[in-house]
Design goal:
There is one protein chain. By secondary structure, the protein is an alpha/beta fold. It is built from 16 helices and 11 strands. It folds into 3 domains: 143 residues, 3-Layer(aba) Sandwich (Rossmann fold); 119 residues, no CATH class; 67 residues, RNA polymerase sigma factor, region 2, helix turn helix motif (Rna Polymerase Sigma Factor, Chain: A). Helix 1 links the parallel strand 1 and strand 2. The C terminus is likely disordered. GO terms for molecular function: 1-deoxy-D-xylulose-5-phosphate reductoisomerase activity; isomerase activity; manganese ion binding; NADPH binding.
């Protein structure tokens, strides 16, 4: 069980909910971080009194140091500061709740420092799953999933043998555009895409849910977390979001994990495993749910899910390219520069242009990520002929 926690991305959706969990189970918050939202980070620091806080943006970090000069909290900044945070002595668990590939290097460094990882950053395993899992095995480190779907599978597998697994079934809400045709996606607005039917999440992951890229990322993540062949991982649309995922066994048995759509539940279990502790979080009232329904995802309409499966099957650097193109395209969409469907068009074209490196190092993946971002922006400029502002890619949480 977690005793001393560092939260990488404490001002984002998962990070703030993790702090709610800490209040419930009395875990010491040893470290906190943000990209640039020092107003929120300062409030968190004054409440939880961590030993260290880190800010990715150096100028904001220096400003926070001045603000917290009346405390004994150490304030650091930049990537060096983030690394110091996740390797801080005394911390036993690092919750990685940043968005995007920004979480990759800090997660690897935390593993090398002997920290248990509570993983909420999908892109770490999407871009470098093989390297990360090898590092965890080499350092005898547990990686505990925080995503509701992967924590569901984690629980369903407890006490069962890998050779008895027939398939993993990842459930998906279907997002706000379930049932849409390709034509209907033409006029989707940012506001509509951010209106998720069941989950409250940050903007980037909410758009990924709307395109179903999020579910594609989860397929790749499950492949590495559970050492499972891609052919044994299935996606099933379940709009009620009550069954968070299932495991089917070779004797015909299926074990499902059910619960309310409340991310604090899997966050807490990642912190307390193998123990379970009481809380006042969401509960399911089956008399009000009425029925549970299921359907296959439409891979023709939701091409991002198809792209992710394809990238996972190709392997090598292709998943990193998929992720980089997606991060850029989603940012362009959120800025109102491209349409919802153009997210898929940009990703598809960048993947087509990529020459795969099958055995990349961590540095190779970081370089491929950079090049894929440039390629995505170049395609955007050629197709849309619009001014492109300078984006800040390496953000922590949503702030």
């Amino acid at each position: 069980m977690t005793k001393n926690l560092v939260i990488l991305g404490s001002t984002g959706s998962i990070g703030t909910q993790a702090l709610d969990v800490c209040d419930n189970i009395n875990v010491r918050v040893l470290g906190l971080s943000a990209q640039k939202n020092i107003d929120k980070l300062e409030m968190q620091a004054r409440k939880y009194k961590p030993a260290i806080v880190a800010v990715m943006d150096p100028e904001r970090g220096k400003e926070l140091k001045v603000r917290l000069r009346d405390t004994n909290i150490k304030v650091v900044w930049g990537m060096d500061g983030i690394i110091e945070l996740v390797t801080f002595p005394g911390a036993d668990t690092v919750l990685t709740s940043v968005v995007g590939i920004a979480g990759l290097v800090p997660t690897v460094r935390a593993i090398e420092a002997g920290k248990t990882i509570a993983l909420a950053n999908k892109e770490t395993l999407v871009t470098a799953g093989k390297l990360v899992m090898e590092a965890a095995k080499r350092n005898n480190i547990n990686i505990l999933p925080v995503d509701s779907e992967h924590m569901a599978i984690f629980q369903c597998l407890a006490g069962n043998r890998k050779e008895d697994i027939e398939k993993l079934i990842l459930t998906a809400s279907g997002g706000p555009f379930r049932g849409y045709t390709e034509e209907l996606l033409n006029d989707v607005t940012v506001e509509e895409a951010l209106n998720h039917p069941t989950w409250l999440m940050g903007k980037k992951i909410t758009i990924d849910s709307a395109t179903m890229m999020n579910k594609g990322f989860e397929v790749i993540e499950a492949r590495w977390l559970f050492d499972m062949e891609l052919s044994k991982i299935e996606v099933l649309v379940h709009p009620q979001s009550i069954i968070h995922s299932m495991v089917s066994f070779r004797d015909g048995s299926i074990i499902a994990q059910l619960g309310a759509s409340d991310m604090r539940i899997p966050i807490q279990l990642a912190m307390t495993w193998p123990e379970r502790m009481e809380n006042s979080f969401g509960r399911v009232d089956f008399t009000r749910v009425g029925m549970l329904t299921f359907e296959k995802p439409d891979l023709k309409v939701f091409k991002c899910l198809n792209f992710a499966i394809r990238a996972a099957n190709i392997g090598g650097t292709m998943p990193a390219v998929l992720n980089a193109a997606n991060e850029v395209a989603v940012s362009l969409f959120l800025d109102g520069k491209i349409s919802f469907k153009a997210i898929m068009d940009l990703i598809g074209e960048v993947m087509e242009n990529h020459r795969v490196h099958m055995n990349p190092s961590l540095n190779d993946i970081i370089e491929v990520d950079r090049l894929a971002r440039e390629e995505t922006l170049n395609i955007y400029k050629k197709k849309y002929k619009d001014h492109v502002r300078v984006f800040q890619w390496a953000y922590m949480g949503n702030n």
